[in-house]
Design brief:
The chain has 430 residues and is mainly beta. It is built from 1 helix and 18 strands.
Length: 430
């Protein structure tokens, strides 16, 4: 068999080591030895990617030249512990390429050759080794690139907790996840404490006050505190509240209304289908009206209005009414009764953060029906009614006229004004 010279260059750390070149000579098992070129596990060892065996290029116990031979015999270059063998530094236990303690010891190449057990390139933990590139924990290994924890691994990119993982972007709790229900854009909007957006509506007492010493007679009371002569076009009794929250942010305010009001009719808007269509003389009435304008602009009966500013873009055009007594639009009749009635209902309207609310009672002739019940006889005694406010939150404080029912205005005589207790029950934001 022809004898061949093998020279191998190894890169250990940052040093270049020149392996011994075996001399020609007969071999026990021929070129390739017991396990062929690459040793026990052949080229590509147990888990490495480098050419070589489980510990380096050259396999666990051999190099090109097998277990007991190579070009150079049992103890020649590439012997029992050749490149990738079982000793330490390149060249054996204590010296370089050569014998036990010098170059060319027991035979050419000695017992220990280039490629110690842990140091040189191809050693147990270096390139190609158990933990080297391609090894158990290196690139491609159990924990390396693509491994258990490496890129693409269990916890790496795309892994259990990585990008796209259980809790990362797109994951169970990430953006858009199951718990994003309460963020902006959710299915039912965000519920907000009404005290933070419309604090003045968390318990608001509102009345069509009787004022001054002028007595208009019957069940009426005078409503202009400035004069006993009503100005042309009547008077507006206004209350304005600021809307808090984020400026420009739309909100929906949900309210509950209870009280005593006189009748009026409106047109061009809508009334909720659940509202009462006919007047309940003894029971409670639901008289909310969305949008439109007062019917019969010269009517002497008072309006109860809400105006929202700035515009929310709602079809209501940001105007609402509280005492829409009938959908039958006729002068007189249900639209203009000489009486007052109990009201109780819930409603909602839109506002803009940073805007305002205007509550208005408009009175064309400066006279209002007192809280004297459904009796239309102006010469009968005034039988003021009380309103059940149980279940409303908050309840009127002890100082509120609503807590001292029936509310009164006392001048030269005692009057019983129309009044309401309004509270915002919740606010939502889309």
């Amino acid at each position: 068999m022809n004898r061949t010279i093998f020279c191998t260059l190894w890169l250990a750390g940052f040093a270049l080591v020149t392996a011994s070149c075996s001399q020609s000579g007969p071999a026990t098992s021929g070129n390739g030895g017991a396990t062929s070129s690459g040793g026990n596990t052949s080229s590509g060892g147990t888990s490495a990617t480098g050419s070589g065996g489980s510990t380096s290029s050259g396999g666990a116990t051999t190099s090109s030249g097998g277990a007991t031979t190579s070009s150079g015999g049992e103890s020649s270059a590439g012997g029992v512990a050749r490149a990738g063998g079982s000793s330490t530094a390149a060249g054996g236990t204590t010296t370089s390429s050569g014998g036990t303690s010098n170059a060319g010891g027991a035979a050419a190449g000695g017992v220990i050759r280039t490629g110690g057990s842990t140091a040189g390139t191809g050693g147990t933990t270096t390139t190609g080794g158990t933990t080297g590139v391609g090894g158990t924990s290196a690139k491609g290994g159990t924990t390396g690139v693509g491994g258990t924890t490496g890129v693409g691994g269990t916890t790496g990119v795309g892994g259990t907790t990585g990008v796209g993982g259980t809790s990362a972007k797109g994951g169970t709790t990430g953006s858009g996840g199951a718990s994003g229900t309460s963020s902006s854009g959710g299915s039912s909007g965000t519920t907000i404490d009404p005290a933070t957006v419309v604090p003045d509506l968390v318990g608001f007492y509102w009345e069509d006050s009787c004022q001054g010493n002028f007595n208009p007679g019957g069940h009426n009371c005078w409503t202009d505190s400035q004069s006993t002569t009503c100005p042309s076009g009547g008077i507006d009794m206004d209350k304005t509240f600021t809307v808090n929250g984020t400026t420009g942010q739309p909100y929906t305010v949900n309210i509950e209304v209870r009280g005593v009001m006189g009748t009026r009719c409106y047109q061009g808007g809508t009334r909720p289908p659940t509202d009462t269509a006919t007047i309940q003389d003894s029971g409670y009435n639901a008289w909310w009206y969305v949008g439109g304008t007062p019917y019969n602009a010269t009517s002497l009966w008072n309006t109860y209005e809400l105006h929202v500013s700035p515009s929310t873009g709602d079809p209501s055009k940001d105007v609402y009414y509280f005492n829409s007594a009938s959908s039958t639009l006729t002068s007189g009749g249900d639209c203009e009764r000489e009486a007052s009635y109990l009201v109780k209902y819930t409603a909602s309207f839109k506002v803009m953060g940073g805007g305002s609310l205007l509550f208005r009672v408009h009175d064309n002739n400066c006279k209002a029906q007192q809280n004297c019940g459904p009796n239309t006889d102006p010469n009968s005694a005034c039988a003021a009614r009380t309103v059940d406010l149980s279940g409303m939150t908050p309840q009127p404080p002890a100082t509120s006229p609503a807590a001292k029912q029936p509310p009164t205005n006392t001048y030269t005589k005692t009057y019983y004004p129309q009044w309401t207790w309004i509270t915002a029950t919740s606010v939502t934001s889309p």
